[in-house]
Design brief:
- The chain has no helices and five strands.
- The chain is an all-beta fold.
- A hairpin with a 7-residue loop joins strand 2 and strand 3.
- The protein has one domain: Nucleic acid-binding proteins (OB fold (Dihydrolipoamide Acetyltransferase, E2P)), CATH 2.40.50.140.
- It starts with a strand and ends in a 25-residue tail after the last strand.
């Protein structure tokens, strides 16, 4: 499954994932793969399991952003800046 991180409490090592209009899905630090915490708004992939208190996310991974595969004509930095703008 995929969704976005709704809340993360670093001091408590858990947070919640968005579940549309239903109850949020809890995620614990122990179930994170490849990271120590989550940032609000990040998209994650996970397995969803039912426990006594509700839905729990397991095997949670941050979904990698796909890079645009546009081809440029040899220019490594095609971004243009307007005159007078500091970069």
């Amino acid at each position: 499954m995929q969704t976005v991180v709704k809340k993360w409490f670093r001091d408590k090592d858990y947070g919640y994932l968005d579940n549309g209009g239903a109850s949020d899905i809890i995620v614990r630090k122990a179930d994170l793969i490849g990271c120590q915490f989550l940032k609000v708004g990040v998209t994650v992939e996970f397995e969803c399991h039912q426990e006594k208190k509700g839905l729990v996310a397991k095997k949670v991974k941050i979904k990698k952003k796909q890079k645009n595969k546009k081809h440029h004509s040899g220019n490594k930095n095609p971004k243009k800046f307007p005159f007078g703008v500091m970069t």
